[in-house]
Structures are given as C-alpha cells and as structure tokens.
Predict the structure.
Amino acid sequence: MTTIRVITKHMPDTATAPIDPKLLIEGLGKGLRVIEAFTDERPRLTATEAGNLTGLTRTAARRYLLSLVHFGYADTDGKYYWLGPGVLRLGQSYLDSARLPRLARPFLQRLSLHTGETANMSVLDGHDVVYLLRSNAPRVLSIGYHTGARIPAHCVSAGFAILSTYSTADLEHWVQLHDFSRFTPQTITEPTQFIALVQTARQLGYWTTDQFINMGLSGLAVPLLDRKGQCQGAVSMTYQRDLYPGDSALKKLLPPLQDTAEVLRGII
C-alpha cells in the first residue's frame, strides 16, 4: 500500500474568526514550520537546510532544532537532524481528544462488518485528505489507508466528496492552489476536468474513484454532514476493483455507506 505525505499550504478555515496578530506567539509558528519541513524526501536536515526551507536564518533554525531534540521530538548526530517518535504525540493528542472519531468508531465498525470492506472517516486539511479513523474488513488481507495518512485530495474519493460541498467560488480557489500530481495513468490532473467531476459529485451526493492513486484499488465516499448541514469530513470505503464488476460496488456498498453517514449526521 502506498502512503504519500505532502506538505501543502493550508486553506484558512472560513468558519473561524480572525485572530489579532498581536495575540499570536510567532516563535510557536516558526517551530511548527521547522517540524513540517521534514518530509519523505527530506527525512534528515542540516540547520542550513531547515533554515532555507522555513525562511529562518541558520542560527535560528538550529535553535529550534536543538529545542526539538531537548524536548524529545527530534534527534541529531551533530550535523543532521531528524524527527523522533516523540513527535507522534502531537497527532495522537488530537485523535485522543477529538469528539468526531470517537462518535464514528462503532458505526464504521458495523459498516465494515456488514460489507466486508475497509471503512474510513477522513477530513480535508488544506489540500490533503487526512484519515482519522479506519475500521478494517474482517479478512486476512486488509486494504486502505492507515490512521494519520495524508493523501492528495484529487486522488481519493473522500476528496471529491468533501469538495463537492464547497461553493463554486471556493472550489475554484482551492483548485488554483492545488498541485495535481499524477500517480497512475488514471489520476485526474486537469483542473477543469477535476472541477467538472466534483460538480457531478455534488449532484450525485457521492463519488467513486478508480485507480487514481493505487492500481487495482477503487474508492467510494459520501460527505459527512452535521445536523446544520455543514460538512465535517467524509465516510469512505476502499476495495479491490476486480471484486466489483460493473456497477455492483454502487449497488452493494453505497446504500450502507449512505445509511452510516445519515446516522452520524443525527449525532454530530
């Protein structure tokens, strides 16, 4: 299973009131930028490299890196720095405290048991779909994305489902900033085509993807709305396309997926 991590510019949350810049701790933001500078392609950085990636001087970057080492979030050999397992505490704190994954867990478990497929709950974080919850299918070989995985939104059904709740203007703005990288021959990389597909997903109330990021795998997702009709994420399923010829996936998987989303709507 391919896991792809992409650091992207986050879209602002339009539902959050602006914060007076004078109340912000700029140093905290700089430290978080240093953490985000580490990627699959750059797992080890020198202070100079970290500074160049974050817009900091070498001296400032080194101080932030040494602070991360001191507090147990990174390690160093004196020249290179790399993140340590302690940094996972940051993400785990969110998973432990967030209300939505806790509420959704039993319903996703029931969904995967009923269908025999892996069920997921995810949210859109900037330009990545982040998987917050996964219920494995009751089989020896389980497929899908692990908790915490970040996948470019144009590659997975959940991305289409969540973006289908955006207004046309917000969708077009999102598309202008997105990197439509290709991962398989089926990946949608043309912005105008992507917008057209998302608009179709808006009309249907669901979306399917076929081998957009992994050959042999398909996905099906519906938006997860709350009682006010606001999108809180997506509920999705990942399955082997060869097991569902024609429209059999829609006939078997879509109704229970929609039922799960509707039940959750009544409690979130």
Observations:
- The two ends are 31 Å apart (CA to CA).
- The first helix runs from residue 26 to 36.
- The longest strand covers residues 231-240.
- Strands lie at 74-76, 81-83, 118-125, 128-135, 150-152, 207-210, 217-225, 231-240.
